[in-house]
Design a protein that fits this description.
Strand content: 35-45%
CATH topology of the largest domain: Lipocalin
CATH architecture of the largest domain: Beta Barrel
Structural class: alpha+beta
Helix content: 10-25%
Distance between the termini: 98 Å
Oligomer: single chain
């Protein structure tokens, strides 16, 4: 190629590059013609129009921190005058309340609920569900930073901890059915007639895996750990209630699919999430513990002395492992006692100088000892307690006010004893005593 032609082509290439650069600069100039204030004001108008656009307002299931807490459903109906009608399933009060809101412009655009309403219950540091959240409350917020819209949903991020929160369009049924969320809460907790033991079972289309499942109503949070040796998968999830089941966060991942919505079956108390290609997850009841332990052996004859204590006026009363039936039986005892008297402790002493006994103490009256013998069910990995005497009298009848609760400790099918992985404020190990034939379970500290 002649040098003259080479220069000609190089000149043409440089000219094309300059033209492209000029076009890019023009686009950039157009992009930045608007000032930041103008863009923020446009976003403010955009958000305002969106909030007012839905006939029945908006719904948000607010997981303030899905590592420790569940989800709380909130319904909002915004008005042009800066007021908002709001309802939530935070507690039994699902009524609608009116307050004020503002769309504020700072470094970004935010939706702020400026006067007190249901959303503020999650940000009140003086109200907390468990001691570990003292002075932190429910970790919630009442200011939400606007991040745009997608698929008819408004996307926010919380100001407090930068978590995504989405508003979806509400329906008339969402408002009418909100109280059903609290009915569903009781189904998640489980009635007195349901078995005490639960599992999460996953199916990835080829293999089934089982996990224990425990739920804490105060925090709406569940823990699930694999019961299979060598399979270390676990699922910890916040739970939100719906009229037909629950929604969980984080999702339960099975076979590469994210399962979040579980439907309730009242016939057996199960909750099922269904994916595709055979993928599913189900939370269901079982009649016995998933893993049987040797923890009961502390109470067998010839073992060292031991002491397990449940205390009404201390942290054991708030244990998530206590069953509804146990609480109901405590109320029965108090209702049967004379005015001014109530039960204070239930303690189990093993292999003491006077043998093994259940020790009931009270406010307003003296303690009562139920002396028992202990037999081992080695196959079932449990103990069977049998009546020996009330106090030192072999002929004394069971006190009438203790008859109902005491029969669960005397269950002919036996009692499971389990060392729990959690603690109740103090460092003392936590043990539960569970009737083998009924949903009765009591939480204790092992004090000796």
């Amino acid at each position: 190629m002649k040098m003259k032609q080479l220069y000609k082509y190089l000149f043409a290439a440089i000219l094309i590059l300059q033209l492209v650069a000029c076009n890019n600069n023009t686009d950039a100039e157009q992009l930045f013609n608007e000032t930041p204030t103008t863009r923020l004001n446009q976003q403010k108008t955009e958000l305002n129009d969106a909030l007012l656009s839905s006939q029945y307002g908006w719904k948000a299931v607010y997981f303030t921190d899905n590592t420790v807490l569940g989800g709380y459903t909130h319904l909002f109906r915004f008005a042009q005058d800066g007021t908002v009608q709001m309802a939530s399933d935070f507690d039994a009060d699902t009524a609608t309340y009116k307050s004020e809101y503002a769309i504020q412009v700072g470094s970004t655009v935010s939706l702020t609920f400026t006067t007190k309403n249901r959303i503020h219950l999650l940000s009140d540091s003086n109200s907390y569900p468990i001691p570990a959240l003292e002075a932190e409350g429910y970790l919630g917020d009442f200011q939400f930073l606007y991040y745009g819209q997608e698929n008819d949903e408004i996307i926010f991020r919380t100001n407090r901890n930068n978590r995504e929160l989405r508003f979806v369009k509400a329906t008339a049924e969402d408002w009418a059915d909100l109280p059903k969320n609290l009915v569903m809460e009781q189904n998640v907790i489980g009635g007195q007639e349901r078995p005490l033991f639960r599992l999460l079972e996953t199916n990835d289309g080829t293999a089934v895996h089982k996990f224990d499942f425990s739920f804490t109503p105060a925090t709406r949070f569940a823990n699930s750990n694999s019961i299979e040796s060598g399979y270390s998968v676990s699922y910890d999830m916040g739970i939100g209630y719906t009229p037909t089941g629950i929604v969980v966060s984080p999702a339960v991942e099975v076979g590469g699919q994210q399962l979040t919505d579980f439907t309730y079956n009242d016939a057996d108390g199960s909750f099922t999430a269904t994916g595709t290609n055979g993928v599913s997850a189900v939370i269901k009841y079982t009649d016995k513990p998933l893993v049987l332990t040797d923890d009961y052996k502390f109470l067998l004859p010839a073992q060292p002395a031991s002491w397990f204590g449940f205390f009404v006026d201390d942290y054991t009363i708030d244990s998530p492992a206590n069953s509804p039936l146990f609480y109901a039986e405590l109320e029965k005892v108090n209702a049967a006692l004379p005015a001014g008297q109530r039960i204070a402790t239930i303690e189990i002493y093993g292999n003491q100088g006077i043998g093994t006994l259940i020790y009931y103490s009270f406010i307003g009256r003296g303690p009562i000892q139920h002396r028992v013998t202990v037999e081992e069910d080695a196959v079932g990995k449990k103990i069977i307690l049998k009546h020996k005497s009330w106090g030192t009298s072999t002929t004394a009848a069971t006190p009438a006010f203790l008859a109902s609760i005491d029969k669960y400790f005397m269950d002919p099918e036996g009692i499971y004893v389990k060392a729990e992985s959690f603690r109740l404020f103090y460092s003392d190990p936590v043990y539960t005593f569970t009737s083998a034939s009924s949903p009765f379970r009591m939480t204790t500290w092992k004090l000796q």
